Amino acid sequence: MLQEQDLGHWRRTHYSSEISPSIGDSEVVVMGWVASVRDHGNIQFIILKDMHGEVQITAKKGECSEPIFEMAKEVKEHSSIGVRGKVRPQEKAPNGAEVVPSEIRAFSIAKKAAPFMMQGKTSTVGIDTRLDLRAVDLRRNYLGAIFRIRQTVLNSVREFLARQKFIEVNTPKMIATATEGGAALFPIFYYDREAFLAQSPQLYKEQLTMAFESVFEVGPIFRAEPSRTNRHLSEAISIDVERAFVDYNDVMSLLERMIVNIIETIKERNADDLKFLESQLPAVELPFPKYTYSDLIDKLQEAGERIQWGDDISPQVMKSLQDDRLNSFYFIIDWPTSTKPFYVKPGTADGGRVCESFDLMYGALEMSSGSTRINRKDQLVERMSKQGLKPDAFDYHLRVFDYGVPPHAGFGLGLERLMMALTKIENIRDATLYPRDIDRLAP
Amino acid sequence: MLQEQDLGHWRRTHYSSEISPSIGDSEVVVMGWVASVRDHGNIQFIILKDMHGEVQITAKKGECSEPIFEMAKEVKEHSSIGVRGKVRPQEKAPNGAEVVPSEIRAFSIAKKAAPFMMQGKTSTVGIDTRLDLRAVDLRRNYLGAIFRIRQTVLNSVREFLARQKFIEVNTPKMIATATEGGAALFPIFYYDREAFLAQSPQLYKEQLTMAFESVFEVGPIFRAEPSRTNRHLSEAISIDVERAFVDYNDVMSLLERMIVNIIETIKERNADDLKFLESQLPAVELPFPKYTYSDLIDKLQEAGERIQWGDDISPQVMKSLQDDRLNSFYFIIDWPTSTKPFYVKPGTADGGRVCESFDLMYGALEMSSGSTRINRKDQLVERMSKQGLKPDAFDYHLRVFDYGVPPHAGFGLGLERLMMALTKIENIRDATLYPRDIDRLAP
Hints:
Two copies of one chain form a homodimer.
Chain A (H helix, E strand, L loop, with lengths): L26 E13 L3 E8 L2 E8 L5 H9 L5 E10 L7 E12 L18 H6 L1 H4 L3 H23 L3 E2 L5 E2 L11 E4 L2 E5 L4 H11 L1 E9 L12 E10 L3 H22 L1 H7 L12 E3 H10 L12 H4 L10 E5 L23 E6 L2 E8 L4 H10 L8 H4 L9 E7 H9 L20
Parallel strand pairs in A: 3-5, 6-10, 12-13
Antiparallel strand pairs in A: 1-2, 1-4, 2-3, 4-5, 7-9, 8-9, 10-11, 11-16, 13-14, 14-15, 15-16
Helix pairs in contact in A: 4-6, 4-7
Subunit structure (chains A, B): Homodimer.
InterPro entries (chains A, B): Aa-tRNA-synt_II, aa-tRNA-synth_II, aa-tRNA-synth_II/BPL/LPL, Asp-tRNA_synthase_2, Asp/Asn-tRNA-synth_IIb, NA-bd_OB-fold, NA-bd_OB_tRNA
GO molecular function (chains A, B): aspartate-tRNA ligase activity; aspartate-tRNA(Asn) ligase activity; ATP binding; magnesium ion binding; RNA binding
């Protein structure tokens, strides 16, 4: 009878991907979870899945011992097991080989059937059912492909920025002062004081250009947005980049090259995952199209939209423009100064009516915001006051500007939104392992 | 007169490290901050520092134009400037060359002198003065070396774990339930509910072994410890590793090999920084020494310490053992089950009195804690109850154990403490950019 046993001295000798006819006559030990079982009476097939793929275990009455055959019949999907046995060529099995078991050890027997199907791209149940049992949901092939691609995105970003001489930093997530006004912040009890969770590493990464010139951070950001949409999370991963002695044009160029590099790297390293997803990566060409904010407003007005210069441009509104180039990546540049945070540098023309800023869009989805930053204290104080912020609250930040903060520019790029653009994920929650939103704080 | 100007179309053509006699007669543009100025009357030396090193600017009366010479005289330390000029061989200058300025542009003029010296390993002021102006403090050569080494540590960890087929994950920092009891947690207002900041990714990384087998995370952890010591932070970076189908011996082996790999990588990539620090990396040999908890208690009792089996072993107490091998990295293994969290797997001998656990120490400093984990629901529930935790509060975690959680083991390694061991930093605050503790929430 199949009973749960400890790992003991059992160790895997081969990953599933290594099981092939060339192994010959030596015994192997494979381990993983049971992706499926097929009972053909006198023959029992178990598909065992590990991090590298699948291996077929074939228990045939008369061929393996009676106790082992009986155990094989009892194996249930999702259980974690180890199998000792010999490898035999089998054309129909993954890698052209199967394992004939001489021993089966059940490390953990599944007590229930999963409430959703594990194969296929689409799920048969709603996302909340899946998220309530996320660790099991993540065993689905679809999410495996998504998170392997996510890994490539992060590796590619780090490799690209290292070549550009950036240093990776970590800035504090518990902060005393709201960076961009007080909205959408999560308050914390910090010992005997009030504090907040950081919405972005903005002011820290700017300061760090003083000492390190080119810095980036990959870390969590926290936004208490009470929205229920398919593209907002309360906790997300932001790729934040900041560089000294450059302006917004330079960092736009950096950003678009970074994205092209990400796409090329995924093509190289995730061919199988892309095939499984039946998904084309976005077609990109350098440079990405650039639209000034003012031109877009004109076009939108021509298209009959009731929008005024100074309004935000919403995703819905963008859809009314019939322009194929707006289906992929493009920049909207030179936003009204009044629409952007205090640290964004106003342009020199026209009394600073527009600022040196950009949003990177993918279709109607905002990916990234960036700008040239103000690097002088008096200008910062002036912009803060205009936006109704109290400079006193930013004393620790402002004092740094007495010591020669270099000109600098940067951007923040939302990892989950980028994943949506790259892999056509419909709900941003599937681009993160354990999503957080106004309704969901668990698991 | 020297006046602040925008970056405009100025761009750096060369980093300081690229300024050498071989450049020849073409003009260069260098940028950075002014590390020092020396006024010799008719000759003015400016040491300009960028992310790659230093370059000497030499303005000589009669050789450069009168306005430029006057500007060079006005340049103040810490200001951010750009210099256009020609390169000339100069034996005494960094890289054997200096720049003769034809144009100087001040992007940001320092208004104050820094309250500490920038050169040298030790600072002339207390750490709080430095931390209050951390962005400027980070320009010190000493901290530059520390954070370049930190970068190597993180790169080395990622490269090492990628070779071992680990996937990097990010788990939520806002959680509903205290992982290891309710102590030392920061509470959050999560919309209309109470939530907490995660003390560790423990339960998430364990769950993720179901789908991904081998996972790691590099991310912030939050501990509301009201301690004022040189080795505690309220927010730190943890390197968390978890792997399926292995036990604590396997992950101890992984951890010690990872640390040896880190040390080798620093030797390769940070030779200059090590030279500047005049610091020897720890001498290590595989395997690291292992002491069982019970043996150490015996030794401590022999050494006259009043310590009982079941007590924690404090850093102070460890110092009373005269054993050279205790000055570097070593493991304390097989701790009393009662001293470890509920998810740690009790051993099979002796009714589970000790558990499959380890601490990695460096001298008296704890670096890492790890263990084999329980992978069965009934055992988890039993251990929770024994520790006074309510299994109901862990419903979202426990339900996963109905679906075949594999045997697994892992550890958490404190990045800042590891940096202390590697570079002999005296105060853990200098191993992090912007430290957080009970007294400090800013900058």
